Amino acid sequence: xxxxxxxxxxxxxxxxxxxxxxxxxxxxxxxxxxxxxxxxxxxxxxxxxxxxxxxxxxxxx
Length: 61
Fold this sequence. Notes:
By secondary structure, this protein is mainly beta. The chain has one domain (about 5-60): Rubrerythrin, domain 2 (Single Sheet). It has one helix at about 45-50; strands at about 5, 10-15, 25, 30-35, 55-60. The strands form two sheets. It has a three-stranded antiparallel β-sheet with strand order 2-1-3, with no helix packed on it. It has a two-stranded antiparallel ribbon with strand order 4-5. The protein starts with a strand and ends with a strand.
C-alpha cells in the first residue's frame, strides 16, 4: 500500500484516513519528508506547527 500525506497536517500514513487530524483528504503526490522525534524541542516542528512525533511531508501537490 503506497504512503499518503494528509493535506491538512502533512502527516504521512498508509491508512485511508489521517491518524492525527482524522481528515480524509490524502495525497500520494508529496515531495520529501522529515521525521520528528521530539516536537517540543524541534525548531523545525515549531516552524511547521507540528505537535506530535511522526513522519511529515515537506511539500504536498
